[in-house]
Design a protein that fits this description.
Helix content of chain B: 25-40%
CATH class of chain B: Alpha Beta
Strand order of the largest sheet of chain A: 2-1-5-8-10-12-14-16-18-20
Distance between the termini of chain B: 31 Å
Number of domains of chain B: 1
Largest sheet of chain A: 10 strands, mixed
Largest sheet of chain B: 6 strands, mixed
Shape of chain B: globular
Distance between the termini of chain A: 49 Å
Strand order of the largest sheet of chain B: 6-9-10-3-11-12
Largest interface: A-B, 23 and 32 residues
Number of domains of chain A: 2
Structural class of chain A: alpha/beta
CATH architecture of chain B: 3-Layer(aba) Sandwich
Number of helices of chain A: 7
Strand content of chain A: 35-45%
Radius of gyration of chain A: 21 Å
Number of strands of chain B: 12
Order of helices and strands of chain A: HHEEEHHEEEEEEEEEEEEEEEEEHHH
Helix content of chain A: 10-25%
CATH topology of chain B: Rossmann fold
Shape of chain A: globular
Oligomer: heterodimer
Strand content of chain B: 25-35%
Chain lengths: ~400, ~250
């Protein structure tokens, strides 16, 4: 079964390859060179990373170059397996490889056909996991022409609750990463997800897909400190009623970073609430792209969905392409979308300075004010987000 | 305290202040009145060092030091405070955080240690009733969603926390109802002493009735055309600025 899916993905990838900039969804981000990177076998990718940012009071799951390192990890109420365990049928595959639809998507097809290992996490029914699950996804010790395919599947069963941190980190390898994460959220499940990417010279495509059942709840924040090329595809499939979601994205770009978030929020059933808010801070000659779409299908009455993008350009040469969209095929829905782009307010800067606050501190205060609401709903202290942002400013 | 000598100020290439001269001594309260567009706010912002206002010639000497080139924060640390005509909203920044950052920034410039958080809170809590604000204001974003009167009271709260030697109040009385006006006037009156000076910009005499000013100056076309005692404000109320223009043959 899994091998059928992977063979199918292989043939789709051989037909599609990576998208070109002629594809509207990839207009600003050129990933054609992903075709030139080499896949590698598990032996070459085998590396025991050093200086892993393990968190206290958390369950740390370490993935290096796509391979689960600490296979012996045990968390009460959670089942964790690698690909070998799934192949040996010692654990049910559940919806593994079925949430991210690769039929028209070369990027997903390439990951699906080529990953060497996968991490399969199931949060069991009615379980409340007190400590956060911290997934440390490391790319390290790779040659420049190598591509890796991290693959993670997270399944929150009925009436379960967990917090999941995802740290994407790297050394200075000039490799490429095609990463896929799938989330399947059963009825009444509750996930709090905080993704923090702090990467360097890599070319990255990071695809995250969600499929939600009735009354499931997701609180999600993705923060990226830019790298050479970072593309994130977020697909939210609201397939049940009564879902309650709050999604946030924070892009921080400097030097010549390129950060591109593409988001699809698909309301396939009604009576759910979704709030998606993307903020960007762009310095130097960095480029940000936000392309988000709310799609409300027929039979989705009672949907309440919001999509907002606010951008702060901190230099004259920084650039943002912002494109929030709505497609509504149903009556009796509430939808809103908006976009703002601007510089730091000069009058506010003067106001702070006239109270004795230095120019740099005044800028930091305004920047912090700009993002504070977005990050305040997360326990971002654990990953030292505030400290990282202060340093970045 | 502060002396303006032949001050000429341009805003975005346009001359607004032309040969402005004024001396304010310690403990004095001076009032600047004048028609719209006469340059009152320009004077206020120039004193505080707003980068948009460019001094073309002349001097501002404060506490015997030429401050023409000093940054707004350096001026604040020397004890200059400007209450803005239109206080800016800063979403996402709590009032208490802003106040503490301001106090500590000034202490840092003066090479003093940061204020103890408990002492700071105690001080602020003591000041809040003086401006008729309750503690919830400390935890709201700076001026966001504040009514006009709340914004102005928040400015006076900042003045009382920062304890400046020279307070420049730009139309702090505009848009206030009579009760709020009394609260603000009381706040200013209680703060006033022999070592603290005020420059108050206003269109109306009503706040001045509470404050007992030393001098009233009439600013027209960027220059003081007439100075006098408190009675000048009442005369203006009665006769309007045309009276000054006629008298001065402008």
């Amino acid at each position: 079964m899994l091998s059928d899916i992977r063979n199918n993905a292989k043939s789709i990838f051989s037909q599609l390859g990576y998208p070109s900039t002629k594809d509207e969804m990839w207009k600003y981000t050129n990933v054609k060179k992903f075709n030139d990177y080499m896949s590698s076998d598990s032996q070459q990718l085998n590396y025991q990373p050093k200086d892993i940012p393990i968190l206290d009071k958390s369950h740390n799951i370490i993935i290096c170059n796509g391979q689960l390192i600490n296979k012996d990890i045990k968390i009460s109420g959670v089942s964790i397996s690698n690909y070998e365990d799934i192949l040996n049928l010692s654990v049910p595959a559940e919806k593994f490889l079925q949430i991210s639809n690769f039929n028209n998507n070369g990027v997903l097809a390439h990951n699906t056909s080529s990953f060497i290992d996968a991490v399969h996490i199931v949060i069991n029914e009615n379980e409340i996991i007190d400590l956060p699950i911290n997934i440390i996804n490391i790319s390290s010790n790779l040659e420049n022409n190598i591509i890796t395919f991290p693959r993670v599947y997270i399944h929150s069963k009925r009436n379960s609750k967990a917090s999941i941190y995802i740290q994407n980190i790297s050394d200075s390898s000039r490799c490429a990463i095609n990463s896929v994460m799938e989330f399947y959220c059963e009825d009444l499940s509750n996930l709090n997800i905080f993704e923090l990417s702090d990467l360097k010279n890599q070319q990255i495509i990071n695809s995250i897909s969600f499929s939600q059942c009735d009354n499931s709840k997701i609180n999600f924040l993705s923060t990226v400190f830019g790298c050479e090329m970072y593309r994130s595809n977020i697909e939210i499939g609201i397939d049940g009623e009564g879902c309650d979601n709050n999604f946030g994205v924070l892009m921080l770009g400097n030097t010549n970073n390129h950060i591109d978030y593409h988001v699809n929020i698909n309301h396939n059933r009604g009576n759910s609430f979704n709030n998606f808010n993307c903020k960007s801070l762009l310095k130097d000659t960095s480029i940000g792209i936000f392309n988000g779409k709310i799609l409300v299908e027929k039979e989705s009455a009672g949907t309440d969905s919001r999509l907002n993008n606010n951008n702060l350009l901190l230099s004259e040469k920084a650039e943002i392409q912002s494109n929030p969209q709505l497609e509504i095929n149903c009556e009796d829905v509430k939808c809103a979308h908006g976009s703002t782009t601007g510089n730091l307010d000069k009058e506010a800067l003067f106001y702070l300075r006239s109270r004795g606050i230095s120019l740099n501190k005044a800028k930091a205060i305004l920047i912090h004010g700009f993002i504070s609401k977005l990050i305040s709903s997360f326990n971002s202290d654990i990953l030292s987000l505030d400290e990282k942002i202060k340093k970045w400013i | 305290m502060i002396t303006f000598k032949d001050l000429v100020v341009d805003v975005e290439g346009k001359r607004i202040i032309n040969e402005f001269n004024l001396k304010v001594s310690s403990g004095e309260l001076h009032v600047i009145m004048g028609p719209n567009g006469s340059g009152k706010s320009t004077i206020a912002n120039t004193i505080a060092g707003h980068p948009r206002y460019s001094i073309k010639s002349g001097d501002i000497v404060y506490k015997k030091e030429l401050i023409n080139e000093l940054s707004p924060e350096e001026r604040a640390a020397m004890g200059i405070f400007l209450s803005l005509q239109y206080p800016v909203s800063i979403p996402g920044v709590k009032n208490i955080y802003f106040l503490k950052a301001a106090v500590n920034s000034i202490r840092k410039i003066k090479n003093q240690d940061e204020i103890d958080t408990i002492d700071f809170l105690k001080m602020v809590r003591g000041i809040l009733p003086l401006v008729g604000l309750d503690e919830s204001f400390l935890h709201r974003s700076v001026n966001e969603g504040f009514s006009g009167g709340e914004k102005k009271r928040n400015e006076i709260l900042q003045m009382l926390v920062l304890q400046p030697d020279l307070s420049v109040l730009d139309e702090t009385d505009s848009g206030l109802d009579i009760d709020a006006l009394k609260i603000i006037a009381e706040g200013i009156k209680n703060y006033r002493n022999d070592s603290r000076s005020f420059i108050i910009i206003t269109h109306y005499h009503r706040m001045l009735d509470f404050l007992d000013p030393d001098y009233i100056h009439i600013l027209i076309d960027g220059k003081i055309k007439l100075s006098g005692g408190p009675e000048l404000a009442h005369k203006l109320e009665e006769k309007g600025y045309s009276w000054v223009r006629e008298m001065q043959n402008i």
